[in-house]
């Protein structure tokens, strides 16, 4: 299995205020579900692919026990700085989504927003398996995947089934030089076979045609 290197582009982005600007506010659906976690008995939370920590910080403000991982050290550095300023305790660690350094059943909830579709089907499948492994039975998962309705689907070179590297590199979007995996609803449900879907919505993000699946699911 080839390791994806998308984190290198993000490491550069997190190094500047301009690059971080669009990634400081928690997503509304993440914030809304976070507010329900305590009532679900979810206390230990993993933010997988935390970036600069917008969601990890939001969880910690709710009093949850938060661990945040990313492959981009610069993002983790920004999260540590922000958590110190707010006097919030957040454990941070460099870790690959395909090899999480945690014991089985360590967490009540895992978030992975705009992360695990960076790779071919083997990488994506390994990431989903790791999420299932570190979640307790009955634990919750919230995350996104690229939809086949996305205007980028089919662009560039197909390097693996439903996986494309965009040949037309946008200088303002260096992330696109890395593999991106796309799926439809049936494929997504099959990929998350160890989960019971609670919510699955094909949602357009800020850019026109930027369709992503937003999923909430429970570990069986």
From TrEMBL:
It comes from the Bacteria. Transmembrane segments: none annotated. This is Type 11 methyltransferase. One of its GO terms (biological process) is methylation. Residues 45-139 form the Methyltransferase domain. GO terms for molecular function: methyltransferase activity. The keyword Lipid metabolism does not apply. Keywords: Methyltransferase, S-adenosyl-L-methionine, Transferase. The keyword S-adenosyl-L-methionine applies. It comes from Mesorhizobium alhagi CCNWXJ12-2. PANTHER family: METHYLTRANSFERASE (PTHR43464), UBIQUINONE BIOSYNTHESIS O-METHYLTRANSFERASE, MITOCHONDRIAL (PTHR43464:SF19). Pfam families: Methyltransf_25.
